[in-house]
Amino acid sequence: MLQTLSRLAGLAGLARRGAPWVLALGLLATAGVQAHRPSLPEPGWQKIDNPGPVTVDGRTYTATCSGYPGTDARFAFWVREGRSRNTMVFFEGGGACWDGLTCSFPIAGLPPAVPQFFVPQVAPGTDPATFDGIFRTDRADNPVRDWTMVYIPYCTGDLHAGSATRTYTSVGNPALGLPAGAPLTIEHRGFDNFMVVLDWMRRHLDRPQRLLVTGASAGGYGASLNFPWLARAFPQAQMFVLADASQGVSTANWDRFGRSNWNLQFAPRAFGPDPAAVPSPDLLRVAARSHPRAKVAQFTTTFDAVQIGFYGVMRQFYGPGGDCPNLAVDWYRQMTAKLVEYDQRVPNFRYYLAAGQYHTLLRSPLFFEEASAGVPFNRWLAQMLANRGGTSGQGGRWESVACPNCLVALPCPTP
Question: Is the pTM of this model over 0.70?
Answer without folding.
Answer: yes
